[in-house]
Design a protein that fits this description.
The structure is a single chain. The protein has four helices and 16 strands. It is an alpha+beta fold and about 250 residues long. The chain folds into two domains: about 30 residues; about 210 residues, no CATH class. Strands 1, 2, 3, 4, 5 and 14 form a six-stranded antiparallel beta sheet that branches. A hairpin with an 8-residue loop joins β6 and β7. The longest helix is centred in the N-terminal third of the chain and has 27 residues. The radius of gyration is 23 Å and the shape is flat.
C-alpha cells in the first residue's frame, strides 16, 4: 500500500469513527425534547393499554430532565398515573396504572436519592392527608459464625392534599440519609446481592379523612403494566406502626 492510499485509509477510518461517535452521542446523550401534546400522550397511553381509557391529562410533573410523572383522568372519572422516560431520542412510557395509589419510582435503583413518591387521587376521594413510611423490620441472623442484629427502622412523613390531589415528591432528606447508609453497608457486605428487598426496606402509607380518621379511598379497578422500577407502596393500618406508649 503506497503512502497516499494509507493516508486515505486512515482518514476514512477517522471519519467513520467520528461519525459513529456523533451518532451515538446524539442517540444517547442529547438533550430531551418536550413531551408530546396532551392528545398524543392520551392516544399513546390508550394504545399501550387498550383498557386504560385515558381522557384528560391533569399535570406534567418532572423528576428531572429525563423522567416525568403524568397523572391523568380516565373516562369513568378515575385518576390514573403514568411514568415517562427519555430514552434513545424519544419519550417512552415506562409504566401506566389505572389507579393512583402511591408508588415508589426508583429512577436509579441503586441510589435512594433518585427515588420519588408519586400519587394521583380524585379531588372528591375524601382523602385529606397521607402519612408515608420508610420501614425495616427487626431481624437477627447468623452468618459465618457471626451474629448480626438489625434494629427496626420506622420513619414517617406527612403530606396534606389540600393543595392538590396528585403530585410527586423526593424522599425526605432523613430518609435519603438512612436508606443511603443502609445501601452502602449492603454493597460492602453483599455486593452481588444488593437490592432494596434484600435490605429489608419497604415503603407504606396510611390515608386520613378530614376528621383525622384512617381512610381507604375508592380508586376503582386497579391494573397497570410497564417497567420494573415502579413499586406499589403497601397500604398500612395504624396497628402496623409502632407508636411510643401504645399497648399492643
Amino acid at each position: 500500500m503506497d503512502m497516499n492510499k494509507k493516508r486515505l485509509f486512515l482518514l476514512s477510518g477517522l471519519i467513520i469513527t467520528i461519525t459513529v461517535g456523533i451518532g451515538l452521542y446524539w442517540l444517547y446523550f442529547s438533550k430531551p425534547d418536550g413531551l408530546p401534546d396532551d392528545k398524543k400522550l392520551i392516544d399513546y397511553m390508550n394504545r399501550y393499554h387498550s383498557d386504560m381509557q385515558a381522557s384528560d391529562i391533569k399535570a406534567i410533573i418532572p423528576a428531572d430532565e429525563e423522567h416525568v410523572f403524568v397523572p391523568f383522568v380516565r373516562k369513568g372519572g378515575e385518576y390514573g398515573a403514568s411514568f415517562w422516560t427519555w430514552r434513545k431520542r424519544d419519550w417512552e412510557l415506562d409504566y401506566i396504572s389505572s389507579a393512583g395509589e402511591p408508588k415508589i419510582w426508583r429512577i436509579d435503583p441503586e441510589d435512594p436519592s433518585s427515588f420519588r413518591i408519586a400519587w394521583s387521587f380524585s379531588p372528591d376521594s375524601g382523602l385529606e392527608k397521607i402519612r408515608y413510611y420508610l420501614m425495616r423490620d427487626r431481624d437477627f441472623f447468623v452468618s459465618g459464625g457471626k451474629e448480626t442484629y438489625l434494629p427496626k427502622v420506622q420513619m414517617e412523613h406527612e403530606t396534606m392534599l389540600d393543595e392538590g390531589s396528585y403530585g410527586m415528591m423526593e424522599l425526605p432528606e432523613e430518609w435519603k440519609s438512612v436508606a443511603g447508609s443502609l445501601a452502602d453497608s449492603a454493597k460492602k457486605s453483599q455486593p452481588d446481592w444488593f437490592s432494596f428487598p434484600v435490605l429489608g426496606i419497604h415503603f407504606g402509607w396510611i390515608g386520613y379523612d378530614e376528621n383525622g380518621k384512617t381512610f381507604i379511598p375508592d380508586v376503582g379497578d386497579s391494573f397497570g403494566t410497564g417497567g420494573s422500577n415502579i413499586d406499589y407502596m403497601q397500604m398500612l393500618g395504624e396497628n402496623d406502626i409502632e407508636q411510643p406508649g401504645r399497648k399492643e
